[in-house]
């Protein structure tokens, strides 16, 4: 007798499909974004060459969320969104370091993590208006 209404065969594949979709939508980690916020990396990311495979030809990029946008309006809308503001709040805490891991393991005294000043990146049109005035 085989179970008719019980477990379906091949149901185990659903987990692997979910994992594939999860890794497909994966965003950059906070410590990677802290590296992107360094001035030399930020300038390179904000002034990318046009790439037709990316949204907006890679001309509209949010450094804090590591996202590309189609146009300037959608990027401005994103800057006002809850998702962007949450990411800014997460980025205010300094990235986790090896020294902090050693202190947590009992190899030193605990020092609370430092706060990092993070602000939304300036828009190109605002910079151009100030330069023309």
- Residues in β-strands, percent: under 5%
Shape: globular
Radius of gyration: 22 Å
Report mean pLDDT, rounded to a whole number: 81
Uncertain spans: none
Tell how many strands the DSSP assignment holds.
Answer: 2
Largest sheet: 2 strands, antiparallel
CA-to-CA gap between the ends? 84 Å
Note the total helix count.
7
Structural class: mainly alpha
Q: Order of strands in the sheet with the most strands?
A: 1-2
Helix content: 40-55%
Write the H/E string, N to C. Answer: HHHEEHHHH
Features:
133 residues, 46% helix, mainly alpha, two-stranded antiparallel sheet, 3% strand
Explain how this protein is built.
The model has no long low-confidence stretch (mean pLDDT 81). 46% of the residues lie in helices and 3% in strands. It is globular, with a radius of gyration of 22 Å. The chain has a two-stranded antiparallel sheet with strand order 1-2. Strand 1 and strand 2 (67-68) form a beta hairpin. It is mostly helical. The chain has helices spanning 13-24, 30-36, 39-46, 72-79, 82-91, 98-104, 124-132, and strands at residues 61-62, 67-68. It is built from seven helices and two strands.
Explain the layout of strands and helices.
Elements (H helix, E strand, L loop, with lengths): L12 H12 L5 H7 L2 H8 L14 E2 L4 E2 L3 H8 L2 H10 L6 H7 L19 H9 L1
Q: Outline of this structure?
A:
With about 130 residues, the chain is mainly α. The protein has 7 helices and 2 strands.
């Amino acid at each position: 007798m085989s179970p008719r209404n019980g477990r379906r065969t091949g149901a185990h594949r659903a987990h692997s499909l979910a994992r594939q979709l999860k890794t497909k939508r994966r965003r950059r980690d906070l410590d990677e974004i802290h590296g992107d916020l360094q001035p030399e990396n930020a300038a390179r990311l904000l002034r990318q060459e046009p790439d037709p495979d990316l949204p907006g030809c890679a001309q509209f990029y949010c450094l804090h969320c590591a996202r590309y946008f189609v146009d300037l309006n959608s990027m401005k809308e994103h800057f006002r969104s809850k998702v962007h503001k949450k990411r800014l709040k997460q980025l205010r805490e300094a990235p986790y370091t090896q020294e902090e891991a050693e202190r947590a393991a009992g190899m030193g005294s605990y020092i609370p993590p430092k706060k990092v000043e993070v602000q939304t990146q300036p828009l190109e049109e605002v910079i151009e208006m100030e330069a023309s005035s």
